[in-house]
Structures are given as structure tokens and as C-alpha cells.
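Give me C-alpha cells for this 221-residue protein.
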Amino acid sequence: MTTGPKSTPPVRQRDPTARRMLADVLALEGSRWPETRPAYAAALLRLATRCERIEARAEMYQWATVEFGGLLNQRSERVSECRADALADVVAEIAGTLLRFRSGLDDARWPNLTSMLRAAMLWTSTDIYRIRYERHTSRTAPELRDGDRPAVGRPDARTLANEVLALLADDARTSKALRLVGLGYSVAEAARRTGASRQQIYRARDELLSRIEGEDDAGDE
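Here you go.
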């Protein structure tokens, strides 16, 4: 369970190879799809493997803090704090996330790694906020309900919450499992506690992030 701030990757660590691998992935997103799917899948696999190294995760963290800077710096200190900790959580598990993203590639949908990671960060930050600041109330805090929205075209925490509820309404076991994952339990432990399979949990999370990614892309048009 996430109960306090997570330590971020060491910012002084550097891995130019990981940065080049990330650049390769992003460059392939702007090329012809689905013809480039094999190359893109291979690039994701190389990056995921590299991200087993702490230096590579630190490089990903540095890239993400720049990419998501507007989302991390909010008027509410609580929201900024939770998003920063959520980003650290996402980066800590980036290798597995990249592999799951790779397994969900679809010829009919252009991949967008940045959008997927942004959605994961916002979703995780919402869970962290609720654990820390809403233990004794059933009402959503004003910071998340009314203010501190990201730039136009970006999904905010309220949209993410609505997407979660809409996606999980059909499967109570998967719903409970994803909630446990959001609270910090491993997928294996969430599966054991709820009876949902690991693959069901992974598929549900990937579908959720894909829906959010599609909504985000539509908003940017």
C-alpha cells in the first residue's frame, strides 16, 4: 500500500543509451503504422530490457519530469506532491509497463507512449491522493474536483476516475483487483486476493489506458 512519498530515481544517474532507445521508440510513433509495428515492438523490448538498470530508469524519470512539467507543477501543493510521487512509482515499474504496452499493440491504433505514461501517472496520483487525504471523507477534495486541471486536451484526474468506473463496472473481481494495484499491491497479490487472473488484470489496465489515450488524442485534434 502506498502510504508516503516514494524515493525518486537518483537524478545524477545518466544513461545515454537508454535516452537513445527512448528517442528511437518516439521516432517510430511518427512513422508509417502498422508497417513499422515490428520495429516499434522491438524498440520497446530493447527499452524495457534497458530499464531494468537504475541508470536507465533515472533517465526515463528525467525525461518524464520535463515532458509532464505542467502536470507536476500545480497550484495545490498536495496535488503536485501526489503527482510527483506517482511519477516515481510509474518509473519504478517502467520495465513491466513497457512490456505490457508492447503486448497491447494494435494495427488499428497508433501507439502513443507519452500519452500512456501520462495517463498512468494521473491515475496513480489520484489513488495516492485519496489514500493520503480522503481517508475520513466521502467527498472528493476541492483540489481534484474543481481546480488544477491540466492544459487543454489533457485528461484530468476526474476524467480518469470516470473512465475507471465505466471500464470496471462489468467485472467485480477485476475492479477490486485494479483497485488493489492502485493501492500499491503487486498484480500477483491482487490476483490472489480477488480471484481475478493476472492476464485479466493486465488486460483491464491496458484497455483503460488505451481508452484514456484515445480520448486524449481526440482532445488534441
